[in-house]
Every structure is written in C-alpha cells, then in structure tokens.
Amino acid sequence: MARGKQDTRLDAPKGLRTTVLPRRGNGVEQSDRFGRFTEWIARAMGTPWFILGLTIFVIFWMAWNTLAPVAWRFDSIALGFIALTLVLSLQASYAAPLILLAQNRQDDRDRVQIEQDRQRAERNLADTEYLAREVVALRLAVKDMATKDFIRAELRSLLEDLESRDDEDGETARA
Known about the structure:
The chain has one domain (33-167). With 175 residues, the chain is an all-alpha fold. The protein is built from four helices and no strands. The protein has helices at 33-45, 48-67, 82-144, 148-174.
C-alpha cells in the first residue's frame, strides 16, 4: 500500500483494518491466514461433532488406560488421569484465546456492517425526503389543474350559451 493512500478494504472498520501484505509465491494473503484459521477452530469447537469427538477421545483414553495391559498404559487411573487432565487443560487454554480472537474479528465485521447500514439508512432517508417533496410539488401542481367536474360544468355552460344563441338566431330569423 502506498504511503498516504487510503485503505479501501471494507471487511474491517476504519482504524482497525489489517494491512494486506503483498502476494508472495503462493498468492495467498499472509496477514489474514491466522485469523481465518482461528475462526475455523472457534467455529469447529462450537459444533456438536466437536463435543462428540472430544467425548469419544476421553472415553477411549480412559478405557485404554484402564483396560489395556499395564505395560501399554501411559496414564494412571490411580493418579486420576493426570495426563488427560493436562491435555484437556492445554486444549482449554488455547481454545479460550482463539474463541476471543474470532469474536473480536466478528465484532469488527459487525461494526463495518453497522456503518454500512447507517450510511444506507441515511441515503434512504434522503431519498424519502426528496420523494416526499416531489409528491408535495405534484399535489400543488394538481391542485391548480382543472378537475373533471369543473371541465364538465364549463362545457355545459358553453353548451347552454350556444343553445341560447341558436334560439336567439332562430327567433331573429323568424321575425
């Protein structure tokens, strides 16, 4: 991005926009890859399939370390599955920041969407006000126009005048 050039990306609010690094080698934007990855992780953790998979993993771990031959066990039931507890704690310690990062990115997108909605609402309001002024102008113009009843009354009046002239001309010709 050139110095002084305005960032025109619309996927993040002003001031919080990420800088897009130039494309290198594989042509993938480098700056946003981690963010997309964290959102994918956060989305995956919020599914029933993740909970089911984690449950199956824990059941398998506990069954293996309970039922397998002693030489094959790597976590002791007598100590309360310390390794399992550490693995689940490690998973939780990474999950929380990844979820927060994904939530922050979603908040940024929501701010952009709200700003775009506000601008769209302003344009709609301006268009509505313009159309309201046009309708008022048309009503004023129509108010000055002759109505159908007015035109009929005028035509009847002219027809009566013509008939009265014909009657007068007829009487003059007879006399």
